Amino acid sequence: MNLLAPYACDPARSLGRRHAEAAAADRTPFQRDRDRIVHCSAFRRLVYKTQVFLNHEGDLFRTRLTHSLEVAQLTRSMARSLRLDEDLSEAIALAHDLGHTPFGHAGQDTLNACMAPYGGFEHNLQSLRVVDRLERRYAGFPGLNLSFETREGILKHCSQRNARALCALEPGGVGERFLSGHQPSLEAQLCNLADELAYCAHDLDDGVRSGLLPFAALEEQPFVAPLIDQVRREEGADLHPRVLLYTTLRRLLRLCVTDLVDHTRQNLLAHAPLDVQAVRALGPLVAYSPPIAAALQALKSFLFARLYRHPEVEAQRAPAQRLLADLFGIYLEQGVPDPRDEDPARAVADYLAGMTDRFAIREHQRLTGLRLFPSE
């Protein structure tokens, strides 16, 4: 059995839940968190939320759900290598996108613009709202009542204004580190980087298979091209194109995972944190080596220019933005079913953020009579 390192989050020393609960006899607090996340409604809805391609454009493209599962696999695997808590790492990964809107970043940007007069919209903060407040599954408390450590990891980003608001409601809680400059746990840091690595690899895959990203473009990318050449030399030049793509992406992931684990071990040896509180007081410890970090940054820039801003992807932004802006205006005027917040605008934002792509499309067509997207 792989014993936890002293700098890992020990479930026996969890900082607890906002609402006290008796301990379970057969599961740790972090195992219970993971199970609650998997069974919640918001997690199931991720299957019909856009990652890059709209949900109805093809059955093989990633959704928020499949992305979250891939992040969980990477995070758990690396957590095991670093002797961190695997269950906490997995719970954070599975919950990190629960607050994402339909239609990906186009939806997020639109909802933030609509909410600008009412405090704005942050998808990471919305993920926290989902697990803290919006899910309704228990008689004794709102939300899922997750442990501090899981909630800390879910809140990857937070504005100073929202952090102060969180601290007013929960002094010393998950918003505190954004004011003090402290770091989250190593499990949370690991999930942050696994998230970025997962979407880089799977967006290359989806981009090529969609036809929007020519494979030849990958052969011009400095980080990927040597891996393609290596696969051809070792596996044969006549590989099926899909096998060539998958083998290259596996090697990309292996290279990055190995580098991240090795460089993080070096950082841990250099700083020797004695416990998780020492981790929080230090700078980021989970990191790539500088060459790999630079290569991944260049890869993200490549994806942004060649895929995320591809004309066919961009063409979906305008109808998605119009659809959500229309729905926001309609619901702000007439209200939403079963509001979860006394503030009407925030209740609308909660309702819209919880929608799947296909439900939002159907609701817009029902309320306006317009069809902005082709039939699913």
UniProtKB/TrEMBL annotation:
Keyword Hydrolase belongs to the record: yes
Pfam family, one: HD
Keywords annotated in UniProt: Hydrolase
Keyword Membrane: no
InterPro entries per UniProt: dGTPase, dGTPase-like, dNTPase_2, HD/PDEase_dom, HD_domain, PHydrolase_assoc_dom
GO MF annotation: an example: dGTPase activity
Domain of life: Bacteria
Domain HD: residue ranges: 64-200
Gene Ontology biological process: dGTP catabolic process
NCBIfam families linked to this entry: dGTP_triPase (TIGR01353), PRK01286.1-1 (NF002326)
Family membership noted in the UniProt record: Belongs to the dGTPase family. Type 2 subfamily.
Descriptive protein name: Deoxyguanosinetriphosphate triphosphohydrolase-like protein
